Amino acid sequence: MRRVTFDLDVLRSFVTGVELGSFARAAERLGRSTSAVSAQLKKLEEQAGAPVLRKSGRGMALTEAGETMLAYARRLLELNDEAAAALHGTELEGWVRLGLQEDFGESLLPEVLGRFARAHPRVRVEVRIARNVELLERVSSGRLDLALAWDAGVVTPHATRLGEVPMRWIAANGQAVPWSRDSGEPLPLVMLEAPCLMRSAATTALDRANIPWRVAFTSASLAGIWAAVAAGLGVSLRTPLGLPANVRALPPREGMLPALGSLGLCLHRAEAEPSAPVERLASILLQQWQGLALAA
Prior knowledge:
By secondary structure, this protein is an alpha/beta fold.
């Protein structure tokens, strides 16, 4: 079998085009012509021995081979960028103070900190897991350099909107919703302590649907929420990101629960021109978020 050596520039064009949803935009982002990117995609398909894209309406979608290629391409590019940063970025020193929601503690944080620490061992990172109100207050007062927070309608001077994440009702895995509309009983809710964006979103949606509810369990942490939901004490409202194996996101309208909207996610910076260590950690955080969002 002929050994294939994939071209990292080709893989970067492929990954960028998929993440931006447009290879024309990818060409602009990477400073190439659209014809050059098209030639790269043709080369990638020749090396892969199968089409990686197919027509879908007016756009393009990944084939099965393309989905496999995308996963490997991301890993190869991450290793390449990590090696480049390790060789050329070891002079970075200082510290970075990062804040984020508990939702991302297990799904995002370990990989981000691992990549950053390997590339920049002389930079100290301090992490704070907190609720939205505290994260935004700490960024505004300069006690955090970066914060990944839900969009609560509060604008900070140097925020970047990353996208939207659907809100979903959460129930125990392998169990039906512990409530029916015909029972005459209020829907039992498992919620974080107030104030909480998703607690407010849940009760507002239920009130609009004329569904009675009661808070059956309150917790100060997500660990308590997952335990109570898994035990069948009620349903909660979160996003599909970072769910443990013992709970599940309900399909729309299961259990006759009202449909929900999406929640915006923003990366807040304390300064318009952050230090090199802060900007590097922000870059790694954005890369990991893009992969997490596409996989969700």
